Structure formats: structure tokens, C-alpha cells
Amino acid sequence: xxxxxxxxxxxxxxxxxxxxxxxxxxxxxxxxxxxxxxxxxxxxxxxxxxxxxxxxxxxxxxxxxxxxxxxxxxxxxxxxxxxxxxxxxxxxxxxxxxxxxxxxxxxxxxxxxxxxxxxxxxxxxxxxxxxxxxxxxxxxxxxxxxxxxxxxxxxxxxxxxxxxxxxxxxxxxxxxxxxxxxxxxxxxxxxxxxxxxxxxxxxxxxxxxxxxxxxxxxxxxxxxxxxxxxxxxxxxxxxxxxxxxxxxxxxxxxx
Length: 255
Hints:
Helix content is 53%, strand content 9%. The chain has helices at 11-24, 40-47, 59-66, 83-93, 108-113, 127-145, 164-177, 182-194, 202-206, 208-222, 225-232, 236-245, 247-250; strands spanning 30-33, 52-55, 71-75, 96-101, 116-119.
């Protein structure tokens, strides 16, 4: 999928794409708002595919670019250190702007500059888009790692905390690790611990790295503490103690 593609599986994203398609034919300035990782820049590039993208925090670069451009995408316009001067420069150079912002809030200067404001809902409100994004990121992972496109989604719970950003990272990690071997896994843990070890209680401090995955995986597979305790060769009270000690990592697990 190229940089100017925008997924339209959900009704919300379809409406956003329709509005963006209309904006391609109009010479008006537009503001696209929403959380990080929802596709604001992708949609902006769909509207102005030939325009450069400059973050508003890079103020000097932005002013210079405005003097030599007829159209421009300004990302994170809410981070501009001098909004008055920015808008004056836009108007003086008669530049068409499509900008992005994390929040849709009243601002008289921005209201005057932008004829159209388009707010994109987060992925947690666009469930249909998540499935298509997982497929897209899986294909990217297959190309990156030189493998096939199979991906085991059993027990896969999409991480939408940062929308597409966190979801893409999660898919990449899960794709890479789905066929990991014992030695690879131990190597990862070894590298993780190397810079963290140093106190006299490190064994106890890092024991959760072994116990938590074992308990979580066991509860998912065997469905109850009683069965898991039997499979692990522990009495139920010992397992309960381990669960209590690691409760911050085990909240929501089947008890």
C-alpha cells in the first residue's frame, strides 16, 4: 500500500475518504484532527500527493518552505511556536495548506484559516479497519523478514493504545516471534537483562519475567488454577501465592 492510500473498511474511514476525495478538487485549506497513529498524514498526502510535509515545530524550516511552495502539508500545527506569524506567512505567499492536529479545539486563527475541518475517530471506534491493518502489516512483515504471509492470530489482542503505530509494532513483533526457538528466546531475555542486573536482589526482582508468561499462558490453555497447578506440579496455594505476587501483570486473567 503506497503512502497516499487510506483504508476505508469502516463507515467512519469511508466518510473521511469521501471528504478527502472532494477536497482534492477544491482549492481550500483543510485541517485533519485526531489521535496519533490514525492516518492523518496519510489522508493529508492523499489530498495533496505532491506536497512536502513539514512539522510545525520546525518553525524556521516551515517558513522557508512556505516561501517556495504553492501547497504544503503542515503536521502538528498545534505545536507551532508562533501561530500568528505562521498564518501571516501562509496568507502572504498564498499557499494552500492541509494541516494535521491531535486535538480539535476552538481557535479563532485556525477557524479563519481552514474552511474544512475533518476529525478522524481512533481505531478503537473503527473496528473494521483493524482487521485490514493487521493484514497490511502482516504483508509488510512477510516482505521484511522474507517469509510467507501466514500469521497466527490465536489469542491475538490488538494493541490500539497508539492506534496504527502500536498495532504495527505489535504485529511485527508477533510475526517475528511466532516461530521463535528456545535459544532465541533466552538470547532476547539475556540481552534485556544485561544492563539491568546489578543489585543483590535481582533474582527475585526479575523472576516475574519467567513466572508471568508461564501463568498467563497456562491459564489460557488449561482454563483454571486447579488444572494449571496440577500441570506445573505445584499445590494450588503455591500457585495462588505466585498469582498474588504478580497481580499487577495478571489482572483480568481467568481465576
